[in-house]
Amino acid sequence: MTPQEVTELEDWFKNVELPKAPIMLFQGTEIADVNKFLEAQFISLRHDPASKINAPIIYRLKTLKLLIEANL
Questions:
Q1: Which residues of 9-27 are buried (b: 16+ CB within 10 A; e: fewer)?
Q2: What pLDDT, on the 0 to 100 scale, is given for residue 50?
Q3: What are the pLDDT digits (tens) for 29-56?
Q4: 62: helix, coil or strand?
Q5: Quick check: 45 and 57 in contact, CB under 8 A?
Q6: What integer pLDDT is reported at residue 44 of this predicted model?
Q7: pTM, whole model, 2 decimals?
Q8: CA-CA distance, 55 to 25, in Å (whole number)?
Q9: What sign for the dihedral angle of Cα 62, 23, 54, 35?
């Protein structure tokens, strides 16, 4: 993921109405506080967006985005 893509994804989350917690992202993965979840995920992505260690973070963020879009 490029720095520009990270910025675009972060902007998307800032401009959409976030669902109320708790959110079941996957079986066994519950988001208790959406804002804290997003903040924690984007800290690592901003630091080194191309790192392979960020692949699960990108997957979680894109999954959350799909869940939000499905409910719009």
A1: bbeebeeeeeeeeebeeee
A2: 87
A3: 999 999 999 999 999 899 888 899 999 9
A4: helix
A5: yes
A6: 86
A7: 0.89
A8: 16
A9: positive
